[in-house]
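Case study 2.
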Amino acid sequence: MSQSSFSTIAESLQWAYSLLVDSSESANIDAEALLLHCINKQRSFIYTWPEKVLTTDQFKAYKAMVEKRQQGVPVAHIIGEREFWSLPFIVNATTLIPRPDTEILVETALNLPVAETAKVLDLGTGTGAIALSFASERPQWQITAVDKVTDAVELAKANRQNLNLTQVEILQSDWFSAIEGQQFQLIVSNPPYIDEADEHLAMGDVRFEPSSALTAGDAGFADLFHIATHARAYLSEGGYLLLEHGFEQALVVRQKLIDLGYDNVATVRDFGSNDRCTLGQWNKV
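Prediction:
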């Protein structure tokens, strides 16, 4: 498709939509996000100036991006960024793309009655989205974020630097392996929780994300159960554990926490009214 055929913002968006409508459930949003990245403008610009003509270089870049999206590559991977908690996070194929659903975990944690200088642990931090969102809201929290994957640790560190939230400690750790002997008032995690046999793993954006960050054994419960079991040794008296999970896993996760001796066990729904995260309080006495 030549640039002369589709040169204005409105025409370019319509062309992109026509290419993406059969392969993406969010064709309009995808078309807009890619175009805004190419022209480096805010969303209001494309509605205020729909007749604005793209330069040849802008249209070339846009065309290449739209074609990648048509092949299924996630928008976040194409533009190298995803917004989470109103912060821009660098993303790549080494770990999960931050999801809006996870913001309920951040919101729930921020509303817990923990000390102003609480020690907080984020297990399996990936991009660092959860830990760095905490740091942006609670600069006095002593936050440690860990991930088993070297590339994910480097990505989280890049986001820490980019967002200038350098108070967050980021370590390579297989869950609790690098933090022996430490105690935390709050432990959070968005671990892999999808069943390895789930047919949805062959669909959509998840095809381009590492399965190790998505799936877990025991029908998706293995990592959730491992964290819940071992977190007790790392929680201070009255500390909280907060876990994200699949919307159909809440009942089993709640029962597991109760069986392990956690108090005040409760599930919180996300903004789509799906059961999304479950918390428990650890009282040793």
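The chain has a mean pLDDT of 87.
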